[in-house]
Amino acid sequence: MSDMDLKGLFLRHADALRGYLSRRVGDPQLAADLVQESFLRLAQKPAGERIDNSRGYLYRTAGNLLIDHIRQEARRKTDSVPHEALAEIEDNVAGLEAQAMAQQQRQALKQALAELPERTRQIFRLNRIEGMTHAQVARHLDISDSSVQKHLAKALAYVMQRLQDEEVMPTDE
Questions:
Q1: Domain tally for the chain?
Q2: N or C terminus of the chain with fewer C-beta within 10 Å?
Q3: The CATH number of the domain where 164 resides is what?
Q4: Model confidence pTM above 0.70
Q5: Could you read off the pLDDT of 146-163 as tens digits, one per residue?
Q6: Torsions phi, psi of 16, nearest 5?
Q7: Do residues 111 and 57 share a domain?
């Protein structure tokens, strides 16, 4: 088949064939691919082989290619899951990682607090965990406000240093 004949057939039938396939598969891109493959098969026919009805040949070829495509998809198909479900799985994994990291950080914080002197640990707990103000902690423990601030500064510096050390050198568990 000459290039001019093929071009003429393409111009006459490609849009209608693409529309036919699009309606059947609901995927315009797949329909365009099948149309292209149909015309490619027509072009690859040996020169001596005569086709009486080119339009019929194209539709039959496109229909057969569609059937082949559907069969291949069915063979390859695993139960596909919507992207949203995959995102949820990723979120869950990320959530589990975040939970594990948070657990490790809480454990490191507990360890660092346990290493503080009793009075400093008590002031830290009252202020940072129970939410008391400096003045409330001072009244509760019958110490000066500046003493509370000094103990807190000491506790925070120590805890921050220990947490940074944990990040640099993680423990093997």
A1: 2
A2: C
A3: 1.10.10.10
A4: no
A5: 999 999 999 888 888 887
A6: -65, -40
A7: no
